[in-house]
Write a structure and sequence with these properties.
The protein has helices at 2-17, 22-29, 33-41, 48-58, 62-66. It is an all-alpha fold. It is globular.
């Protein structure tokens, strides 16, 4: 459960650091705004494909994304 909270926090922190909106990030990885919002709220977990897209968007490794 802590891992899910860490992921949600990391996604939100990265998005704010890059000054992206949730809508922008969702569009970049090809999902709806609501689906991305659920990632940040810790309701759902991204698919492996979306994990990879998010890591590429932020220029980080998958490990860094989930730490």
């Amino acid at each position: 459960m802590n891992e899910l909270k860490n992921l949600a926090r990391n996604l939100k922190d990265l998005r704010k650091q890059f000054e992206y909106t949730q809508t922008f990030v969702a569009g970049q990885i090809g999902i709806s705004y609501q689906s991305y919002q659920n990632y940040e709220w810790g309701v759902t977990v991204p698919t492996l494909q979306n994990f990879i897209k998010l890591a590429k968007l932020y220029g980080i490794s998958l490990d860094e994304l989930v730490e």
